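Need tokens for this chain, all 322 residues.
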Amino acid sequence: MQRLRRLRKTAVLRKMVAQHHLAIDDLIFPVFVVPGKGVRKEIAALPGIYHLSSDQLVEEAKNLRDLGILAILIFGVPSKKDPLASGAYSPDGIVQKAVRALKKNVPELVVITDACLCEYTEHGHCGIIKDGYLLNDASLQLLAKVALSHAQAGADIVAPAAMLDGQVRTIRTTLDKHGFTDTAIMGYSVKYASKLYDPFFKSVKSAVAFGDKRTHQMDFKNSDEAMREMALDIEEGADIVMVKPALFYLDIVQRAKSEFKMPLAVYNVSGEYAMLKAAAQLGKIDEEQVVIEAMTACKRAGADLIITYFAKDIARYLSGHF
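Here are the structure tokens for all 322 residues:
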């Protein structure tokens, strides 16, 4: 007689037969770098997450390294913005300075940079706007300039986030032309137009001044389109593909892993983080147990890498468990 409870009897047995394991190596921690020195200011929309100046980011990176987290994703929060997002690709931009500081002081850290424009434009959109519409091909050239400037600063991986047609090919061609053939690309391959990003927009002060991003980010009602987007990114040269958000889209994660067998990241976004944090603060859930369960669900669906604001918490939880 089959009794499936036999292998659930003890913690050791359960661990022996567990199919999926969450590990510190899976984690990527998103960080927000700002101009100045000595800046460490908690973000109201994201409890426990901070705006950091480059010097403070270096200290944060050392803490991450000590926790066993060896990859970060950098977002820039500039003090000045303009229609062409010039701060995004300036050699002296805040992200570029941060990357150089990290490579000098914490060289073992894998540095991933968000290669997008919305944080740097006055209107909050991911490129050049004409008559209220985001121009695709003209914006690609700016994205390529951003990625190249990040690679020149020392970034290991650039992550184009705008969801514009042809962005991976344009960036790959530009990087290769300038000798950065070893700089990898993590494509925001399947990025849905989601209200779960709202705490992030508040964090980087990049809420759109008009309209929305539905002409370039994906409609959350679609799944076949997600596979087409991912296939194009792979064809254009993406080394890692991504699904964003994570928890609401695990069906897409499972399908992506099954169909493409590529290194696959998920982004556990700000709204997902904020909801779990709020529920925990209200005493409605056990934060540690629920976070571990949620992130393990990402692994079970097929994710190889998890970008999450919970990364430091998870590293502490896992270190305490084993």
